[in-house]
Amino acid sequence: MALGKNISTGRFNADQNSIMKVVRKPRFVDNAVRHGEYTKTPAGFTVNSPIQSDFMPTAEKRYRLIEEQDTIRLLHNPTDGMRYEGALFVGDDKVSTASPLPALVIGADNNQQALVVSQIKDATKGTRYRLENLKGNSLKELGFTDKTIHFTQKVGVGLRTSDLAVRVVKANISSINGVRARSPSLTFLAQDFNGVEALSALRYLAKHDGYNPKTDRFGNVCYFPQNQIEREHFVGENRVLGGSVEESNENTPNRVIVRGKPIALNHSNVVQVDDFGRQLNGINELPGGIHSPTAVTTSSAKSIGRRMLKMANKATGSRKLKQVLLASNIHPGDMVSYQTRVDNERYIVLGSKTDMNNKTTELHVNSVDVTLEDVLQRFQEIDVSGNLQANEERSRQFSTEEFSTSMGFKVKVTWRVSQRADMNRGVGFTLGLGRRNIINGSLKLKSTGVLVNNNGGYAIGTTSFTVNGTDAGDAFLTDNQAVYTSSGNKLGHIHLASTDDTTVVIKSASVYTVADDEELLLLSPLSFPEDNNKHLKLGAVHSYYSSRRRG
Fold first, then answer.
1. How far is 384 from 387, CA to CA, in rounded Å?
2. Hey, how many other C-beta atoms are within 10 angstroms of the C-beta on 527?
3. How many domains does the chain have?
4. Residue 331 CB partners (closer than 8 Å, separation 6+)
5. Is 451 helix (H, G, I), strand (E, B) or coil?
6. How confident is the prediction for the chain on average, in pLDDT?
7. 137-141, 294-298, 429-433, 472-476: the lowest-pLDDT one
8. Is 480 within the bounds of a domain?
9. Backbone torsions φ then ψ of 163, nearest 5 degrees
10. Which residues constitute the domain of residue 498?
11. How many C-beta atoms surround the C-beta of residue 227 within 10 A?
């Protein structure tokens, strides 16, 4: 294999176009995921560099969110050295109405809060994005409460469905003879099948890749494409003595609603897929629709709906070939090429019944390996991904156990009690402020008599101030005291070693201007909650904290 990193920079950025011979679990390396385009060619499978336009790499940069009528306006967070309020910069590009849309907008503090934007609109300040499906609700009513956001794109890291099927069956190898997979799939799936039976897991995989689980005569589990059969038989029309009876079904679904995993708070990922060619005589919608939690995008939900309608259409071509000669060796699961005078059609055998006296066989065949009822059941069965959390909890811990026994049993319970004493010496704890009933402090400033002595005052960024009035050395006695202006602005913290009677020095540059003859103030002790709430005390001499452990 080619080297997977850049030797000079150390970055994991080299193109990798070779395919491993052994299937391995995905692993994170330095919090990174290598991805590529996996395709099938006449020469085999290839891996190429991904299309850059399909992805929107973003940094962990925060943007400030302002909610509007049906839009949100995003701005850069202001800092001490930056007050830019123009259009956003994402990466190295300035966002315009022609820029690509971000995949998701998520909360900076809660990444479970997500929004999908549909359009970029002009704005005088920042960048404005349009939101759909708000239905008259505010962002807070939808559940989005963060005021800062990230741009992101969700990815799933998994295995090929054909490889995942082999791993699932191998975990239950004690109950089967073996497992086979043919023609590796092009579909990748990230799903944990912990606590799920193997057959349900394989049916779940078959919803996404067009494969089908089956067993052969030797008891092996096979995971093959739906149209691939082990054996094929040729049956001419002259061998079918009883003729062919077609079983048509006029109630084939031609519309289906696919409910995927919700993408964001304003996007439920519900799509409607129609087969317009079979809607000439009316619409027949599949009752209940399809639930597919692994469909994390609109395109994947549409793909599952199209696959279901395609299979349902093929499953209606069921027919019975009666009194077939020399067909006792044809078994369910085999392929039959039925040759007539005008056509040659291929069917999969669903069932066979042999008359040993007359040496004829009745074959039940279809275009796919299941009937229409089986197709509907396959796509509508309960989804294993919805029980993922329950499966994990069942295998990791138990909160309640229920059991019965015909034998008697004894239960022995032991307790361990520990005690810790807390001495308060009768001083008590502050409970709250009389008028508010909460522990609270307020900003109250104390006069010092120290006045700024400089015509025109001092500008922002000053650290040394000439003063008169009261001696500054007597007013400021503690290093790192907070100094305030008469307007209540915090000027800085006293640098006691450099302060004398006529000079006040602070440790960092001031962020506010100071006028001539303006008084410098200190924070009053009345601002502290301990002093502001000393009238409310809860006294205790001894308090005990007990912990109990049952074994």
1. 5
2. 14
3. 3
4. 217, 349, 352
5. strand
6. 75
7. 429-433
8. yes
9. -70, -40
10. 445-523
11. 14
